[in-house]
Write a structure and sequence with these properties.
Distance between the termini: 42 Å
Number of domains: 1
Oligomer: single chain
CATH superfamily: NAD(P)-binding Rossmann-like Domain
Structural class: alpha/beta
Largest sheet: 7 strands, parallel
Helix content: 40-55%
Order of helices and strands: EHEHEHEHEHEHE
Number of strands: 7
CATH architecture: 3-Layer(aba) Sandwich
Strand content: 15-25%
Number of helices: 6
Bound molecules: NADP nicotinamide-adenine-dinucleotide phosphate
Length: about 240
């Protein structure tokens, strides 16, 4: 059986890395996207060594030309994009008056514009195929807010709205849109290295990888619209 061609943004570390590794064991050819060339080439090598198939592209997803040329190259090489995992994201946390306009642009550009650019680039080939699956890694703060989170929450609410509207647009064309809303996950997203004692109860990146795998394996007639996950230690 032909492998599914799956693009994963933010594949260099954290959730994206776990998703890429997991899917590479499950009949996906994984296309690894992040800015850090060294980290994604290393992951590409690891996946190849383990018998999987991967190709890495060191690009910035906020740059339209870089996103489009990556997707064009993948379609040229493989003729299709079956799945897109819109995962790359950043957070900056301050009181609203302390944000610079650069902070605003950075968070909105990666979390919202990046998801839009990748989606825009893959949709024509999915529409032509009458099939495809787009998964957004949003956040539980797509549905609640917290102090000092105004910018990040605004970006995650926007991502949620984008994917919800997109689902209504493309479902009848055979394209699925699913969104995962994680609570706290132990990754580099938080200050310092993962694995610190005070975060031992957090979700692990592999928990989100399990959720992505479950969503992608749903039978053709089943659409999992959304999945929210929290660690037991986090009140919702
Ligand atoms: P992470 O460990 O910091 O990883 C973020 C990834 O995004 C990295 O691979 C990074 O790679 C990539 N990235 C950032 N800016 C980029 C850009 N401009 N272009 C391309 N890639 C870019 O964070 P994570 O926790 O795995 O986060 C993944 C997603 O989960 C994010 O959308 C985040 O909002 C969401 N989330 C996280 C948590 C949590 O508690 N960790 C909870 C809910 C939701 P480079 O730096 O190499 O570009």
């Amino acid at each position: 059986m032909d492998k599914l061609v799956t693009l994963i943004s933010g594949a260099s570390r954290g959730i994206g890395r776990a998703v890429a590794t997991r899917l590479s064991h499950e009949n996906h050819f994984v296309v690894l996207i992040a800015r850090n060339a060294e980290e994604i080439s290393e992951l590409e090598f690891e996946i190849d060594e383990a018998g999987g198939k991967a190709q890495s592209f060191a690009i910035d997803i906020t740059q339209p030309e870089q996103v489009q040329s990556t997707v064009d190259q993948v379609i040229k090489d493989f003729g299709r994009v079956n799945c897109l995992i819109n995962n790359a994201g950043v957070g900056i946390f301050k009181s609203a008056d302390q944000f610079s306009t650069d902070d605003w642009d950075q968070v909105m550009d990666v979390n919202v514009k990046g998801s839009f650019l990748l989606t825009k680039a893959v949709l024509p080939s999915m529409k032509a195929a009458g099939a495809g699956h787009i998964v957004g890694i949003a956040s539980d703060v797509s549905k609640r807010t917290f102090a000092n989170g105004s910018l990040y929450c605004a970006s995650k609410y926007a991502q949620h709205a984008f994917f919800e509207a997109l689902r209504r647009e493309v479902r009848s064309l055979g394209i699925k849109v699913s969104v995962i809303y994680p609570g706290l996950v132990d990754t580099y997203f938080h200050d310092g290295e993962p694995g610190q004692e005070h975060r031992s109860g957090y979700l692990q990146p592999r928990d989100i990888a399990d959720a992505v795998s479950y969503i992608l394996q749903a039978p053709k007639h089943v659409l999992i619209d959304e999945l929210m996950l929290h660690p037991m230690c986090q009140e919702w």
